[in-house]
Amino acid sequence: MTRNIKAELIERRISAGFKRINFSLPSDLKKAIEGALKKESVFLAKFTLENILKNNRISGKNRLPLCQDCGLAVIYVEIGEDMKIRGSLTAAINRGVEEAYSSAFLRKSVCGPLTRKNTKNNLPPVIHYNFVKGDSLKIHIMSKGGGSDNKSRLKMLNPSDGLEGIIDFVCETVKKAGSSACPPYIVGVGIGGSFDTVSFLAKKALFRKIGTGNRDKILNKTERDILERINRLNIGAGGFGGMTTALAVHINSEPCHIASLPVAVNINCHSARSLLLKF
Questions:
Q1: Which residues of 89-113 are buried (b: 16+ CB within 10 A; e: fewer)?
Q2: Pairing verdict, β 72-80 and 126-132
Q3: Are 105 and 235 part of one and the same domain?
Q4: Which domain holds residue 208?
Q5: Which CATH number goes with the domain that contains 216?
Q6: Do residues 194 and 133 share a domain?
Q7: What is the pLDDT of residues 35-82, one digit of tens each?
């Protein structure tokens, strides 16, 4: 049986969602920062974590952006084959993004790549569609900052590089990022697929809630091993050293060509603003 939903409802939820994530940190991220603060011993790193939490309280209370970079809107849509949208889904998403960034006075950060002329409405968003069985609709939204995205990397490794090569590349990427992408980080990693899909896997990994382990046993261990190694880099919160350079490492993986081993690393700053909308 086909389920119907009005595009106007999606538009309203998208708008409200982008306002929410720009004013308050997700609960899992806030909890992870609080946990990092409890175990931190370096004064300046501790001071930085305290101020991240203070900034979150002020932003939520006064409905002010968590960061001056209110991000590029990135959206992953999972739509059931038995779901009927009454109206244009893409148009509804675009209107929702534009309304949020205009009415909430969020900084509009989208421009032409060569002209550098601002589009003045934070459009277009980056939208990925995936059709699944059933009549559900899930929309994952993210405000992705440019500073952290700039430190992301993709590499086509040789299959012989194996797991050690992957771990080395991820840690090297975080080391090169240093403090410039606002640590502590959430590190999204994509493994496999192809050149054009591995970065998609890496960014989508950033949506996973902190504290939820990977269902795959090998990837679960790999995430923990990489996180431990990253936190030995001593970059720390704000780049002041200490125990927490990254709060989490999340990996997505899918099969690849026998001659290839694509790996992508997508870094997110401590202001990791995302939300899952269910309809």
A1: bbebbbbbbbbbbeebebebbbeee
A2: parallel
A3: no
A4: 147-271
A5: 3.30.1330
A6: no
A7: 999 999 999 999 999 999 999 999 999 999 999 999 999 999 999 999
